[in-house]
Design a protein that fits this description.
Keywords: Coiled coil, Signal. With 169 residues, this protein is mainly alpha-helical. 84% of the residues lie in helices and 0% in strands.
Length: 169
């Protein structure tokens, strides 16, 4: 195919030389044949060869154009798929960013609540400790009073009074 295209190109160049000359006279080639015997028209075999070459070139170009169109259509289809995928990914990324912002706000609120609960827990813990200390002090006082009461009640009181004291305990 390459040799045919080069040959066709050569014939096209040779055939177009008279067109590019600005003079009104046809170009003169100084070949071995005298100018009187040379014809102004190309031989029929050369014309047929040139036309066949041009026909093959045209068919090859048409096949190349169709193949290229198919490739371009395939590329556009892939680009459309890519564009749709990119749009979907952009939408998902936006939704994720919105979710992330909501999570950040929720985290801030939860941290604030956590700090409040921590403070309340510390207050409750300190109050519980003070209550437990007061309870132990009260138990100590009650125990000491019971001992005093039992010592006093043994010698001075009657049996009914002792029974009342025990019930009061």
């Amino acid at each position: 195919m390459r040799i045919t295209a080069v040959t066709i190109y050569f014939f096209l160049v040779v055939a177009s030389v008279p067109v590019f000359c600005n003079t009104s006279e046809p170009p003169v080639f100084h070949l071995e044949a005298p100018p009187e015997s040379r014809s102004l028209f190309a031989p029929l075999d050369d014309v047929r060869l040139l036309s066949n070459g041009l026909l093959q070139l045209g068919q090859s170009m048409r096949e190349f154009v169709q193949k290229t169109k198919g490739q371009i259509n395939t590329i556009f289809q892939k680009l459309n798929i890519f564009d749709r995928s990119f749009i979907q990914l952009s939408t998902l990324a936006g939704e994720i960013k919105e979710g992330e912002e909501e999570l950040k706000q929720t985290t801030v609120v939860l941290n604030t609540h956590n700090e409040e609960i921590k403070e309340l827990s510390e207050k409750i813990s300190s109050k519980m400790e003070s209550i437990l200390q007061e309870k132990s002090q009260l138990l100590n006082k009650v125990n000491s009073l019971e001992e005093k009461l039992s010592r006093l009640s043994v010698g001075l009181l009657t049996i009914t009074q002792v029974a009342e004291i025990n019930s009061l305990r």
